[in-house]
Every structure is written in structure tokens, then in C-alpha cells.
Amino acid sequence: MGLRKKGAAFRWWPTVALAMMLTGCAAMGWWREPPRISLASIRIMEVRGFETAFEVDLRVFNRTDRPLLIRGIDCELELNGKRFAEGVANPQKEIPPFESDIVTATVYTSMLDMFTALHRVIQGTADPDRMPTYTYSLKGWLRAGSPGFSTAIPFRSEGRLDFGGQSDAKP
Fold first, then answer.
1. Taking residues 95-114, what's their average pLDDT?
2. Do β-strands 93-95 and 36-48 pair in parallel, antiparallel, or remain unpaired?
3. Burial of 116 (0-12, 13-18, 19+ CB in 10 A)
4. Are the C-beta atoms of residues 143 and 151 closer than 8 Å to each other?
5. Is 41 helix (H, G, I), strand (E, B) or coil?
6. For residue 115, what pLDDT is reported?
7. Cα 164 from Cα 107, distance rounded (Å)
8. Strands 68-79 and 51-61: what pairing?
9. What pLDDT score does 134 carry?
10. Do residues 59 and 102 make contact, with C-beta atoms less than 8 angstroms apart?
11. Greater model confidence, 164 or 11
12. What does DSSP say about strands 68-79 and 133-144: parallel, antiparallel, or unpaired?
């Protein structure tokens, strides 16, 4: 009789597993409208040894009717098509439906990359008629979802930094 009960439980296992998978996938349905992420600000945090640390504020827009639980961000900042800095964040933040919030990540660059970028700015400002313009690209992965059901969503935001006083961002 004990074998008969074990066999009955085993027959239901695939049905239970399928129901759990479908429920989990339905809960993750918000990915059809991925969050929009743009660069909000950047600040120098610390200069040490052979690297510089920056705080990068990212504006995250939740464009769905479900809360967005952010579990982590991995990002890279490029200036004029060249990698400038990269970093990660573990914000553990929930953004309500159809709202936005700031997520701060710490990114790091080598002193060589920092001095190269600074040299280009100084060269460009030597000629008052020609102020330098930088294009930037912020790209990476946003890890979102509940524990055990999270997914990585790619993002990219591009814009222009004009040291003449204008800037332009395109999420």
C-alpha cells in the first residue's frame, strides 16, 4: 500500500511543477515593457592610487502596472565611444507602477583614463571658439524581480555633454 501512495504523489509532481512555472512566468510578465534608464548625474567620490571612483545617479522609470523590484545594476560608461568607467550597485529598491526613482551606482575608472579625458577637455577649452562636446553611452544590465525569479534586463542610454552649457540625453 505504501508504494501505491508514492506512485500517486509522483504522478502529480509534473502538474504541480508546471503550475509553479506558469505562475512564476506570469509574475515576470512586466519585462515586455522594460524599464527606461537614463543618466541623471555624476559626481567624483574619491581619487586614490591608480583609480577614481564616481557616484552615478541613474533615473529608472517603471513603465508597467506592477512594482519593479530592483535587485542589482551592472553598468559601463563610455565617453566618445571609449570605455571610461564601470561599476555595480545593489540597491534592493522597489519602484511603484508608473513611477521613477534614482538608483545610485559606484563606477570606477583608471587614473590613465581619467587623465586622458581631462586632457581632452583642457585641449578643447584652449580655443574659446571651440568648446568640446562629448557623447556618452551608459549601458548595462538591470537585475529585477523577486528572489529566485529575477531576470537581467539590458539597458542603454546615450546623450551629449556640451561644455558650452548645453547637454542632451536620450534614454
1. 92
2. unpaired
3. middle
4. yes
5. strand
6. 75
7. 25
8. unpaired
9. 79
10. yes
11. 11
12. antiparallel
Q: Based on C-alpha coordinates, what's the Rg of the chain?
A: 23
Q: What is the DSSP letter of 32?
A: G
Provide the sign of the torsion angle of the four alpha carbons 64, 70, 76, 80, taken in this order: positive
Mean pLDDT calculated for residue range 28-57: 85
Vertex 126, ends 79 and 124: CA angle to 5°? 15
Pair 21, 28: CB distance under 8 Å: no
Q: Which three cell numbers stand for residue 171?
A: 534614454
Tell me if residue 42 falls in helix, strand or coil: strand
Max intra-chain CA distance, the chain: 92
**Residues in contact with 54: Cβ distance below 8 Å, sequence separation at least 6, in sequence order:** 42, 43, 44, 45, 85, 87, 106, 107, 108, 109
